[in-house]
Amino acid sequence: MRCGVYVRVSTDDQRDNGYSIDSQLRMIKEYCEKNDYSIVDVYNDAGHSGKDLMRPEMQRLLTDIKSKKIDKLIAIKVDRLTRNNYDGFWLLNYCEEHDVKIELILEPYDVSTANGEMIFGMNLVFGQRERKEIGARTKRAMEEMALEKIHPSKAPYGYVRNKNTGHLEIEPIESQVVKEIFELCKQGHSTRNIATIMHNNNACLKQGKWLSDRVYKILTNSIYIGIFEYGKYKRKPQDVLRVENYCEPIIDINTWNATRNVLVKNKHSNYGEHIHLFSGLVKCPLCGEIMSSSESFKYPNGKQKVYYHLRCKNWIVNTFLDNFYENILNSTGVL
């Protein structure tokens, strides 16, 4: 019997439940040896949340299921596969369609029976509830840190995070670059022009390149006037936690207000005319951010041709993404 072994753990899972990757593999290998199962492949999504199926190894598993590479899918519990009710039943039906049986060694019930499917569904409900509780606890902890002005993540450009207090402190060299960026914007320069100027001047940058997206992110970050907006990129505007006097400002309020007007004025008049089919729906598999529509231009035979595509503002699209989405399309039968 050919088996595919799926293991997954997030930081919260390992802390709360103790199911490390090694312990999962040990239990599953003992189970397979006892039942004379042959392990064909191991799918390891260490560090990935179970909130959805958009995980690299899960996508590879779905492709292998479709290609008839395995006969059984082995995991220790259903919450290792997913913590989402809809995804759980979708995965169960997907496996049934391709004659693959799911076996959960710590939840020994037959999912092919009515009673087994009922228990499977109940465990999915408990798993989703636990995921939401973990998320709520994490959210409360991060908000408390923000209210105490303890920065919960990497310091933004222009600041450093004090290792003892966790508070943000101004970084002398980078803060001067921030001031220059705001001053150039105030003078009417576009984000692309500013990025070019920063690149030509070899402005301090520890990693990456000076691109218009990076400049825009600096110009729209209220941290530079001492206001921290926790959840700005992932929450609805009314749910964003706004903490004033969070740190020492680099930019004065008059400069900030002046650059708001310039940013609106410089906004491309044709921005948003092309609506990408998957805009706002596709998430980056590496960082989880919503991917936005973009366009590029080529000139075959001297004529302009526009190419529309999706990209993540945090990551450079590479071969990994090409393979990742190809696997998704293959698994869903699009290709």
- In the CATH classification, which architecture of the largest domain applies? 3-Layer(aba) Sandwich
Highest CATH level, the class of the largest domain: Alpha Beta
What is the string of SSEs from the N terminus onward? Answer: EHHEHEHHEHEEHHHEEHEEH
Classify the helix fraction into a percent range.
40-55%
Helix and strand content put the structural class at alpha/beta
What is the number of independent domains?
Answer: 3
Question: Strand-residue fraction?
Answer: 15-25%
What's the overall average pLDDT, rounded? 83
Radius of gyration: 25 Å
Apparent shape: elongated
End-to-end distance, in Å? 29 Å
Total DSSP E strands: 10
Q: Examine the coordinates and then state which fold CATH places here, giving the name of the CATH topology of the largest domain.
A: Rossmann fold
Per CATH, the superfamily of the largest domain is: Resolvase, N-terminal catalytic domain
